[in-house]
Design goal:
alpha+beta; Alpha-D-Glucose-1,6-Bisphosphate, Chain A, domain 4; 2 helices
Amino acid sequence: MRFTITDEIDFPRDLVYPTIRDRIEELIDYLPNVDAIEVLEKEIDGPVHRHVKRWKASASEIPGLLRPIVKPDYLQWVDHATWDGEAWTTEWRHELPFLSGAMTAHGVNRYIDEGDITIIELEGEFTIHPERLTFLPGAVARKIAPTLERFVVESIKPNLRATNQAVEQWLEEQHG
C-alpha cells in the first residue's frame, strides 16, 4: 500500500534536516510513543550519511486487551536510512523483526526549503506478503493482508507527524 504525507516544520531546512538526521535520539522525551532509539551503525561519506537505528515503541500504544499477547519484540523496528545532504532527501527501509521477510516498508523523504519553513514530503510503501505469513493459513493471510496494511499505514501517519512536531518543539527550545 502506497502512502504520502506532507507536513511542515516552522524552521529552515538547514536546521531541520541535520536535527532529524543526527540528533533524533536526543528527542526521545518529545516522542511519547517511543521508548528508545538506538544507533546500531553510522557511516559518513561526504554529504551522504548511512544510519541504522533500532526504534522501540511504547507498550502504552497497544490496547490493554492486546498487551498480554503482544510481545516486546513486536514493538520495535530497524530503520535503514541513507541521507543525501546535496539532494536533501532520505531514502529509508524498515524491518520489523517479528515479521521477518513477511513485510516490506520503504520510501523517500524530501526536505523542501521554503525560507523559514521546511516542507517534508514523505512517499512510502508498506506491503504485507501473505505467502510469508507462515503462522497463518494461506487463505486467512491473503484475506487479512490488505486490512493489516491499511491499519499499519493509518497508524504510521500520525506517528510520523508527531515526530515532525517533536523536532519543531525541540528546535523551538534550542533556537527560540
